[in-house]
Amino acid sequence: MPPDPNAIPTLLPRSSDFRRQQRAQPLGSDTLAGGTRLSSLEPLLLQDLQRFDAQARAGEGLEVMEVLAAALRHNRPLRLMVEHGEHILPLTVRPRERLMQAPLPATAWDTLHWPAMRVLQVEPAGPAPGDGSAAMPAIPLSPVLWALALRGARAELLPEIAAPAAYRIAPTTDLAALELGKVLSKAVARLQRETAALDDIARWPGMNRERASRLLNGLYLQAGLIVSRAHPAAG
Hints:
Layout lengths: L14 H10 L6 E3 L2 E3 L4 H8 L11 E2 H11 L3 E7 L2 E8 L4 E3 L16 E7 L13 E3 H11 L14 E4 L11 H13 L2 E2 H5 L6 H13 L3 E4 L7
């Protein structure tokens, strides 16, 4: 399904113009990973994102999930310039406040075409909401991360939780605000009772390897996943 043109305000920069401006910048003016410009990031965060360079073809940018996962791990607010169809959508993730900001109405988030979205630039975010200088609309971060995990471009496990390992949902995890559906609800209930490897989860009713990987990524982004590499189920 192509990006919904009604989801993106027409006043946003056009992707072609943004890419042209990037190409015009001196090559030594920024650090690249997967064709993504990484502006003024802390060294550890920069190193984290550069791990994905070899996996991304030049000029295509990084997956949105890769960048958001790094922001969560380092607990740093980031501003992402994301290509969505013919436009550039600025997204700001604020892990501490558990907020996501974008120049979108709340109803537009469900129309975003997550699989096609690529990050072309990353930089530290500006002031947080509430200080009088950040007027961009904000929504809760958790549902965005969940939608991205289930419907985004990444169909395999994030490196931080990659197999071999065994997985279980942390007892204090609250998933009440997320849309699970019948199949995932049953898988979640089972992971709350037992520890299982990726291959085992993939064989549960209604599941397969991709769906299991997306579920585990989503739980990880919600800080609700226990990953054990010493458990007998890890193989």
